[in-house]
Amino acid sequence: MAKLNVEGVGEFEVPDGKRLVQALTDEVGIDQLHACGGNARCTTCRVEFLDGEPDKMTLAEKDCLQQRGLIGVRLSCQIQCAGSMSVRAISRLAGSGRQDAGGPVSDTLPDDTVWVDKLV
Q1: What residue spans define the domains of the chain?
Q2: Stated pTM of the model
C-alpha cells in the first residue's frame, strides 16, 4: 500500500499502482476534477506535489503540460500511487461551476503507457 497525504484533509493508505485521481476520489473522498475521463487532455485534475513527486511521467502528461505552458503542477489522472506522496488538491468540483467532476476513470493506466522523465 502507498501512503497519500492530502494537505488539509489527512493521510490515507491507497493501493500501489492506483491512479492518483481515483485515490483522491475513492480513498480520500474529495471532489477531484477529471473532465476528460483520465486521458491527459483537459488538465482539470491538476495537483501540486509537496513531497514524493514521481521522477517519471507519462508522455501524454508531458505533452499536455507543455502544450498549455503549465509548470509546477501534475495531472493526477496520469500518476500511479507508490511509496509516500504528499499533494495539494487544487482542482476541485466545488467552486468550479461544472455540473460534475467528470466521467469514469479506470483505476490503472493502460499497459502500453509510455513513460518519460518528468519536466523540470
Answers
A1: 2-95+110-117
A2: 0.95
**Segment 20-69, tens digit of pLDDT:** 999 999 999 999 999 999 999 999 999 999 999 999 999 999 999 999 99
What's the number of CA atoms in the CB half-sphere (13 Å) around residue 103? 6
CA 105 from centre of chain: 11
Alpha carbons 29 and 41: distance in angstroms, whole number: 23
| DSSP notation for 45-109 | TEEEEEE---SEEEHHHHHHHHHHT--S-EEGGG-B--SEEEEEE--BSTTT--SSS-S---SS-
Q: How far apart are CA 36 and CA 41, in angstroms?
A: 6
Q: What CATH number belongs to 2-95+110-117?
A: 3.10.20.30
CA distance 67 to 89: 22
**Cross-strand bridge partners of residue 11:** 5
Cα–Cα dist 19/32, whole Å: 12
Q: Write down the residue that cell numbers 468540483 correspond to.
A: 93
- Give the type of residue at 51: D
